[in-house]
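Researcher: Next sequence.
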Amino acid sequence: MGVLESSGVQQVHHYTPLHYLPFIARSRALLSKPSMRALGYHDSHFRSMSSRHDVARGFGSYTFLTLHPAPPILKAKLAAGFPHVRITVPVDSIDAVTYDLCRFNVAMTRQLRRGGKAGFPESLTNGRYYGNAEVPVARTKRDQMAMLERYAGTDSMIEVLVPDPLALLQETAVCCFSAEDRELAARILGQCDVGWSVVGVAPPGPYPRKRQHSQSVEQFVAQALDNAEWRGNGLEFDRL
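Model: Next structure:
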């Protein structure tokens, strides 16, 4: 039994715009930014607000997941009417690979080890600094167990950082926050011949699904499904 499972964690989540699902389904994996660039994805594919911070703070090569079922970023995107989905991964898929844990929100925290500033203190529950990272992470089993014991199940959003592509197994679920999103997700997985389950769940807050955004998503998905070599058109809701 791995660290996460032994700490009572059953699922880990990744949140993504719905229109990225064709790319994820075809690769059957969650990929780090370097892996995606190697496949021809341009920087416009990545979230403009957070991706720059991820790289500058030493976390550009990670795939980001979280233990939190409804993080603030998801609530904000849905409240703005932007279709997003939750990709839920069984915990044994994570415990089978190398990963770090971070409780400080890599993209948003302003307390960094940078420019002579100390950043967050190292400790069992905060983790340690490694390489050029400006935020501490829990990497050893001892630190991970301590962080999970203290913060799992609380309001702290523990991020699960996977430094290599994470294969998505058959038990993966795509959770959708409206009937229309669920129908589109099921069509995407069907055309990509992927057997993940598609689940309709209640949104964690307001989700006024806006026609102009849903049409942009549907047009994007249609082109992505029609051409496996297409790498997107820069549709990214942080820029709207």
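Model: The radius of gyration is 18 Å. The beta strands are 11-17, 29-30, 63-66, 84-90, 100-102, 159-162, 166-167, 173-176, 197-200.
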